[in-house]
Amino acid sequence: MPEEEPRLLVFDVNETLSDMGPLRTRFEQIGAPGHLMPLWFAGVLRDGFALTAAGAYADFAAVARDGIRGLLSTAGGRSGDVEEAARHVLEGFAELEVHPDVPDAVRALREAGFRLVTMTNGSAALTGRLLGRAGLLDCFEALLDVSGPRCWKPAPAAYRYAVERAGVRPGQALLVAVHPWDVDGAQRAGLEGAWLRRDAAAYPDVMLPPAYTARDLRALAAVLTSE
Prior knowledge:
It is a single chain. Helices cover 43% and strands 14% of the residues. The chain is α/β, with parallel strands linked by helices. The strands form two sheets. It has a six-stranded parallel β-sheet, with helices on both faces. The protein has a two-stranded antiparallel ribbon with strand order 2-3. It is globular.
């Protein structure tokens, strides 16, 4: 259990709140196999992390566009405009929906008195559209992204930026994410971490274990609101 009860919940967005499955269809629509989508997204994260480790910065859209160009350049049997294909895939982010467990859980946490913010390696503007479509925008007091600190999570400065913007100490915040690297990074920066398993098999042994583990956000909300 956390030593200091967290009252600020900092939510990751991509895959944690948003269901990115429909982007597979976007890949198929540009003539690429849908199974390339997770590979592409993993590559986007890798390159964003690498830039941060080197002391540089580029926003998510720029890194994502380069990643699509790279994948399509090696995809045999495909023809067409690569720039148009990249645009088509990236426009899909503006149409994503939240996971089914998210709306009830977010409202329950807000009603229980938790403060809610988001902190994404993606775009705060797209986060706003995602939450607006779900009718959840008024539950969050701030939508943050890494353009503020100009470094990607899991760099410590990204988490410090989020808690400083909220006016709390790291120990008063709980990062909620589906990605173990995000949970680990937050905990090394002094926050608590909650891991949403969703479809994952196991949490890596090499990373700091999460303070909370739950199958989805609804299950995590049930635990947090009962304490």
